[in-house]
Every structure is written in structure tokens, then in C-alpha cells.
């Protein structure tokens, strides 16, 4: 997909949370001829945005967001990066339009699952005729494909662990809880919650150090897109830290959903995986045995 500068569809805005993904999306947008505006979320975005038109807003400040999008003539919006906390109800600053939906908005922000919250935010952004697009539409090279990325290939026991963890991750996603699961020796040992993938892997490392997991079994991390998820926001992502933490947890490797997951800094991920002797591969829930055979 190619773009050319400030198109008739309006400029592109990137709502930037934490992590490296917003930077990759911004770089890809510029490489395609865009002039993106960065909307950095206060206390979440941890990148430096010199050289871009940018502003910082509070995570629940819909009024400031609307004003910013109007000021820059924004027609398309990308939501990217991690968000560690929900806004308190006192932090929510509505527009006149969102004020009409205030009770439902507050309830969703405070108690809804991540997918429900993201769907609500997408509806609010698109309410004035703007279009929310996925990070993978701007940076398609980040998408995982079916098969191994590096030199290591999952063995027979690894494939069983991948299948088992994928089943758990799919069920977890249906509950709108998380996107990842770890299986070791055919047993589910960890499910991703609010802490995120890296912290989940730290728990696995602690369990192994405490002797709760056999040192003879390695295991696999699997990350899947939630079945009901709007793929324009919060696609599963892995990076070098994922590989390093999987190594610390004693795992054999990592599998992510092809076409619906992102691999950040692919060359560095492959290098880290090859050096650690770990596999990193893309799997497809629509193929027999997840496309592993």
C-alpha cells in the first residue's frame, strides 16, 4: 500500500503509546511519502518525537484529541503502542458528542476488557468521518508470515507445545483477557494477563528456578490475535525482548499468528533467536496443525 503526502483523505495521525511500534509506524509512513502527526499519550509514550509535528495529550482527554485532529486536518488515525493503565474517571474530558455517551464510556474505560475499550475508542474517533487504520496497513513489512524466521525449527515436542499453547491463547482471547500462553511438556503453565508478555515470561522463569517446571522440558510461547478483535488496534507483537525473556524462561521458542501479529525489528529478532538457539515462527489457525507440518 502506498500513500503520497497529505492526500485527499487527510493527514495521518499516529496515536503513540509505549514501546517501539509507534516509531516503526512513523518511519514507515514517512518512507511512503506521508507527513504523520504524532499524538503522544502522556505518561505512556517513551519515544522522542523531534522532527515530527507532535503533541502530548492525556489518555482520557477526548476533547484535546478532537481539537488536535481538527487542527491538523487529520483524516486517518493509527493506534499503536502499549498502554499500561486506564484513565481515572476524573481524567476523562469528553467532547460534546462523547458527553452524550458519558455513562457508557466511563463504564467501558473502567471495567471493560482491552478489546471493548479499543472498539469504543475506534467508534469515537470515526464518529466524525475519520478512518482508523491498522499499524500493519502503514507498515506491512512488520507482519509475521507462516513458517520459521530464523534457522531453528520447532521439533515434534515443540509443535505439540505450540498447539497446546495456541488452544489456550485462543480461549483466553475469547474472554478478552490476553493474547499469550506458555505450554511446557503439553501443560499450560502461564496465561498472559494485565502484566503483559515480558512479565509473564518472568513468572515462567521464576517457576523454573523454583523447581516447579522440569529442567528437561523446554516449551513454547504462543501469541494470537483475539478471535473477536478489531485488527486495526493492538495486534500481538514480539521483539528482541520477547526472545531474550523466552530464553531466560528456558523455552524452546516463540510462535505468533501469521498475518495478524507484528515482528518488531525483524533482523534483530532473528539474530537474537539464532544466537540463543530458539525458534521464532508464524502459525495459521486456518491451516492443519497450525501450518507447522
Account of the protein in words:
With 293 residues, the chain is α/β, with parallel strands linked by helices. It folds into 2 domains: 11-139, Rossmann fold (3-Layer(aba) Sandwich), CATH 3.40.50.20; 143-291, Cytidine Deaminase, domain 2 (3-Layer(aba) Sandwich). It is 35% helix and 19% strand. It has 10 helices and 13 strands. It has helices spanning 21-31, 62-71, 96-99, 102-111, 114-126, 135-138, 156-174, 197-209, 240-248, 266-276, and strands spanning 11-16, 37-41, 53-57, 74-80, 131-133, 147-148, 180-184, 187-191, 220-223, 237-238, 253-257, 262-263, 279-283. The strands form 3 sheets. Strands 6-13-11-9-7-8 form a 6-stranded mixed β-sheet. Strand 1, helix 1 and strand 2 (37-41) form a beta-alpha-beta unit. Helix 8 (197-209) packs parallel to helix 9 (240-248) and helix 9 runs parallel beside helix 10 (266-276). Residues 147-281 form the LpxI C-terminal domain. Residues 11-142 form the LpxI N-terminal domain. It holds the Pfam family LpxI_N. InterPro entries: LpxI, LpxI_C, LpxI_C_sf, LpxI_N. This is LpxI family protein.
The DSSP helix count reads: 10
**Please, what is the average pLDDT?**
88
Structural class, from helix and strand content? alpha/beta
Looking at the overall shape, the CATH architecture of the largest domain is 3-Layer(aba) Sandwich
Give the helix/strand layout:
Layout: E1 11-16, H1 21-31, E2 37-41, E3 53-57, H2 62-71, E4 74-80, H3 96-99, H4 102-111, H5 114-126, E5 131-133, H6 135-138, E6 147-148, H7 156-174, E7 180-184, E8 187-191, H8 197-209, E9 220-223, E10 237-238, H9 240-248, E11 253-257, E12 262-263, H10 266-276, E13 279-283
Parallel strand pairs: 1-2, 1-4, 2-3, 4-5, 9-11, 10-12, 11-13
Antiparallel strand pairs: 6-13, 7-8, 7-9
Helix pairs in contact: 8-9, 9-10
